[in-house]
Design brief:
11 strands; 2 domains; N-terminal domain of MutM-like DNA repair proteins; Helicase, Ruva Protein, domain 3; five-stranded antiparallel β-sheet; 286 residues
């Protein structure tokens, strides 16, 4: 699933190619893509026709296009969703779900989703945030992100640190890949209890999250297959810089110890057994 860096790459592309343009028509080719818009296909298309895209914004893994008025087109890419800007005359993609044309006759905006886990919807804005995602915490790049508040809530959660990082109500935008990478940089084992983390160590972890995501953003995100691409259909290259994720039995770039893979929440967690020591029962905060 695309995480914050991948979604930010898409947001920047949309801001360049879509912001300021007026929708001429919206076509829904698969109703599942708008399943969370209760008013249905006809109302969805009618609500977008003639509307101007004011901006393109993001929180964590969600994107939205504020429209002239008090609502926005909200999108979540899911496992395989793509927002592409393409020539209106180009052939329709095999898994095209929603298509927006514009009054200037320029590039279409197309939502393509092979697995149809992603979705788009029209939602009212509440203080600039789409109503369905107001419960999601600010991501670590937002001005609204409060590190002291995050640290207090993290320690109070009393769970494993990786589970906490994946909790979008605590900090948004972090998924399996960047959680593993940030924990490796901070020398923290994924199963470390949050209650044992000192304030200093939490600051190091937040810095590691920002650092790895900034580097990933600079390389266009992480693409393991063709399902994540930017608005021009191009892949990211941060997978070539990953330190632990997906590198089972390969040497740690810091100490040379083979990387370990552990089952985690029906997924995998990758770590260095030497750099990221498993937690000891009753360990003091550090």
């Amino acid at each position: 699933m695309p995480e914050l860096p991948e979604v930010e790459v898409v947001r920047r592309g949309l801001a360049r190619w879509v912001a300021g343009r007026t929708v001429s028509a919206a076509e829904v080719l698969h109703p599942r893509a708008i399943r969370r818009f209760a008013d249905g296909v006809t109302a969805f298309s009618a609500a977008l026709a003639g509307r101007t895209v004011v901006d393109v914004r993001r929180r964590g893994k969600y994107l939205w296009l504020p429209l002239d008025g008090s609502d926005a087109l909200l999108a979540h890419l899911g496992m395989s969703g793509q927002l592409l800007v393409v020539d209106p005359a180009s052939p329709l993609e095999k898994h095209l779900r929603v298509r927006l044309g514009f009054t200037d006759g320029g590039l279409d905006l197309r939502f393509v989703d092979q697995r149809t886990f992603g979705h788009v919807m029209i939602a009212p804005l509440v203080e600039g945030i789409p109503a369905p995602i107001t419960h999601i915490a600010p991501d670590p790049f937002e001005d609204a992100f409060d590190e002291d508040l995050f640290a207090r809530r993290l320690r109070a959660r009393r769970t494993e640190i990786k589970r906490a990082l994946l909790d979008q109500s605590l900090i948004s935008g972090v998924g399996n890949i960047y959680a593993d990478e940030a924990l490796w940089r901070a020398r923290l084992h994924w199963a470390r209890p949050t209650s044992t983390l000192s304030r200093r160590k939490i600051s190091e972890l937040v810095a590691a999250v920002r650092e790895v995501m900034t580097e990933a953003l600079g390389q266009g995100g992480t693409s393991f297959d063709s399902l994540y691409v930017n608005v021009n259909g191009e892949s990211g290259y941060f997978d070539r810089s990953l330190a632990v994720y997906g590198r089972r039995d390969q040497p740690c770039s810091r100490c040379g110890t083979p990387i370990r893979r552990d089952p985690f929440m029906n997924r995998s967690s990758y770590s260095c057994p030497r750099c990221q020591r498993p937690p000891r029962p009753g360990a003091a905060p550090s």
